[in-house]
Model the fold of this input.
Amino acid sequence: GGERVTSASGVFTSTLTELIGGVRTIAAYNTQDFERRRVNKAINRLAKAMIRNGYERLKVTPISQGVISTLLIVIILVATQYYVLPGKLDVALLLAFVFALVRMMPLITELNKNRGTWASLHGSLINVAELLRTDNKPYLVEGKGTIQSLKEGIVFENVSFGYDSDSEVLQDINVRIERARTTAIVGTSGAGKSTLVDLIPRFYDPTQGRVLWDGVDLRDVNSRSLREKIAVVSQSTFIFNDSIRANIAYGLGDIPDERILEVAGQANALEFIADMPAGLDTVLGDSGMRLSGGQRQRIAIARAILRDPDILILDEATSALDSVSEKLVQQSLERLMRGRTVIAIAHRLSTVENADWVVVVEKGRIVEQGPYSELLRKKGKLWEFHSIQFQQAIEA
Ligand code: ADP
Done:
């Protein structure tokens, strides 16, 4: 019994941990329902194990009740021998005492047990109540409109945003992201690049200003239809504890193997998939095959290619891969980026150089934007930023 509970609770915990780690991927890929079913399965297994365990414990209870009954008989015998027969105690009184004892015993046991349970649950209950409160968290208010394919571009119009009311992480952002062009966002760590980009799939709404999709305020559209048009490839793209096939087709249901192999080929992933023990059926993740950083990225790229998104959000890895992986990833990324609207949080010089528009962010503000060559010629912030990075590269 106990082991079954432990194992089910292990599965439940790792499923939850995986969910929390993959929450961005889940939101971006609209797979909340799929994940809900997965969690339900784990919860049901845990509940069944606990109920079984409870039954087994119930079987033990009669034994302790046997002990109690024996004890009672001993008390009656002793009391009769030493108190009732010598006339020190009335029989009626003894019977009343024994009766009261018999009635109270289970209540006391129960009370004691419940006190312990309550003490251990009380803290958890308060936490759950706090989590379920909806009046102290910003909730996304769903718009009614469905989004159409991007025709012109996405515009940030006087956008400010803060995670909490007393500090602004983005201030007065004005930028135009043109369709079918690559926009590179550059800035130091903590400048606000990820936050800015997170407003596009509506992970958050601006606290001031608007984000417009071909002139339509993102607040007026359904976030599901919006996210269907977007794919995110980042260094932290989540690989779920499932087959390679399911990881590539993530959120899209049944996709024929030929199509999966085709996108895997475009993502330069075919070779290492063929080397895996069970090919597309090889299970990845915590309890499966571990992938290298470059392999994970290529799975993420295959996933994005299969979705054929209007908008590609690219969050480049800060740490470089080995040069072979780097080249394979770079090549497949270029295939994915071709002809698409790309917003790249750029760490590689080549991405910045090849971008059509470069936006430099500093402390939540856009301090400079324009074509790469023009910004360099101005010897402004981008130039400064590059010199610092170059200096660091020499020192390192
Ligand atoms: P960048 O991507 O440029 O490194 P971020 O957008 O991640 O910058 O972060 C900008 C600022 O917002 C940082 O000061 C960071 O600490 C803060 N921040 C980021 N995410 C959160 C969050 N979920 N809650 C509160 N503050 C956050």
